[in-house]
Amino acid sequence: MKVSKSIIQTALALLGISLFIISCNDKETYPIIPEIKFEDFVLLYNPTSGLIERGVLKISFKDGDGDIGLRQGETDPPFDYNLFITYFEIQNRDTVEVIIVDPVSGDTANFNARIPILTPEGNNKSIKGEIEDTLFVYNPNSDFDTIMYNVYLVDRALHKSNMIQTPLIVRNF
What we know:
Strand content: 25-35%
Order of helices and strands: HEEEEEEEE
Mean pLDDT: 85
Low-confidence stretches: 18-23
Largest sheet: 5 strands, antiparallel
Radius of gyration: 24 Å
Structural class: mainly beta
Oligomer: single chain
Number of helices: 1
C-alpha cells in the first residue's frame, strides 16, 4: 500500500500541533512556600562622590501559589515589607550585623523592601522570576570595606522563604 505524500504531511502537522498543545498545557508547579536564590550583586560607582555607594542585588524566586507581593496601600505590619534584608560588615574577621544610624536625623537605615503584587492571571498561579533591589553599600560611619547581606522573602500567606546570603562584597572607599 502506497501512502500519499500529502497524508504524511498532514499526519506530521497534526502530530506537531498535538505536541505543541500538550507542551502548552504542562504547568510548572512549585511548593507554596517561596524559594529564593542569589543570582548577582553589582556595585555602582558614583562619579560625583568618587565612591561606590550603592549596589544592585539580583535574586530569583519561585512560588507555587503566586501570592508574592503587597498592594500599594498595605503599609501596616505584617504587610509593611515582604523582602527582608539584613546588613553585615566583616570586622576584624567577625561577621557583625550593623545598624546604620544617620548622625544628623538619628534615623536608622532600613534595607527591607516592598515587592508589588506579582500574582499571574489565569488558573495556574505558579510563578517564577527575578527581583532586583538597589541597596546602599557605603556606611560613612565605618572603616570596614567588606560587607554582605542576608535576604528572605515572605508571601501574602506569611510563608517565609529560605534565607540566602550574598557572597562577601568588597567596596573601595
